[in-house]
Amino acid sequence: MGKSAGKTQLEPGLLCRNEDPVAFRELLTKVGDKWSIFTMLALSMLPGERARFSELNRSIPTISQRMLALTLRNLERDGLVIREVFAEVPPRVEYELTPMGQSLLPALQGLVDWVAGNSADVKLARAAFDTR
Length: 132
What we know:
Radius of gyration: 19 Å
Pfam families: HxlR
CATH superfamily: Winged helix-like DNA-binding domain superfamily/Winged helix DNA-binding domain
Domain HTH hxlR-type: 16-123
GO molecular function: DNA binding
Largest sheet: 3 strands, antiparallel
CATH class: Mainly Alpha
CATH topology: Arc Repressor Mutant, subunit A
Keywords: DNA-binding, Transcription, Transcription regulation
Number of strands: 3
Structural class: mainly alpha
InterPro entries: HTH_HxlR (IPR002577), WH-like_DNA-bd_sf (IPR036388), WH_DNA-bd_sf (IPR036390)
Number of domains: 1
């Protein structure tokens, strides 16, 4: 297939305004994942903005323990969450947002607010589309 006449093809880096579009897309996919969003928002809303695994698991409806563990590990790897292990018997582990993780909260809350404010319109648009 050849290029269509008159169509401009964007360089991948221009779309995301980043010199490494693959890394950009990977990070955007991770922080935009529903479980990452719910986990970070839950951490920000829990008392002291810290939580044990079981507290987080209870506060995020329908997340499995395996998915929460994977999500926390990825958020920790990306520097958005810190995991603190206390030398107690039994061991106690708590999770907390890092300053970088906290800096992402306004954007995440903005996305959640947009979904809440537009979900009825999206539902109507889907119904109209599906009837065509």
